[in-house]
């Protein structure tokens, strides 16, 4: 259900025989409907349920999409990547421990 308060396009009743104006009206109505669906517009809601959020990182989702990491919902931003994990190892010389 849309919360954007958009008026529904008008789809006229079909005539008994082919009518070029009717066909033009149908094409125009479908074009308007498609444009409304592609335009994200604004949204306001009191409740939302997300049933299949991506989790872990934002490497394969678009900018502005929601994803979850350890129970926290985050927003993907191109200039702030969320790596899946990071680790490092290092070594320097040796240590000898003597107990006497």
Question: What can you tell me about this protein's structure?
Answer:
With 100 residues, the protein is of the alpha+beta class. It has two domains: 1-46, no CATH class; 49-81, no CATH class. It has one helix spanning 20-38; strands spanning 66-69, 72-75. Strands 1-2 form a two-stranded antiparallel sheet. Strand 1 (66-69) and strand 2 (72-75) form a beta hairpin. The longest helix is centred in the first third of the chain and has 19 residues, at 20-38. The model has no long low-confidence stretch (mean pLDDT 81).
Order of helices and strands: HEE
User: What number of structural domains do the residues give?
Assistant: 2
What integer value in Å does the Rg equal? Answer: 27 Å
Shape: rod-shaped
Helix content: 10-25%
Number of beta-strand segments = 2
How can the largest sheet be summarized? 2 strands, antiparallel
Please give the alpha-carbon distance between the first and last residues: 77 Å
Poorly predicted parts:
none
Task: Report the average pLDDT across residues.
Answer: 81
Secondary structure class reads: alpha+beta
Spatial arrangement of strands, main beta sheet: 1-2
Quaternary structure annotation? single chain
Percent strand equals 5-15%
């Amino acid at each position: 259900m849309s919360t954007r308060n958009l008026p529904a396009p008008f789809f006229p009743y079909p005539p008994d025989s082919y009518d070029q104006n009717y066909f033009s009206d149908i094409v125009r109505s479908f074009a308007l409907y498609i444009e409304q669906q592609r335009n994200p517009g604004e949204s306001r809601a009191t409740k939302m349920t997300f049933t299949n959020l991506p989790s872990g990182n934002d490497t394969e989702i678009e900018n502005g999409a929601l994803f979850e990491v350890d129970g926290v919902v985050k927003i993907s931003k191109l200039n702030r990547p969320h790596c899946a994990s990071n680790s490092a190892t290092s070594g320097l010389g040796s240590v000898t421990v003597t107990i006497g």
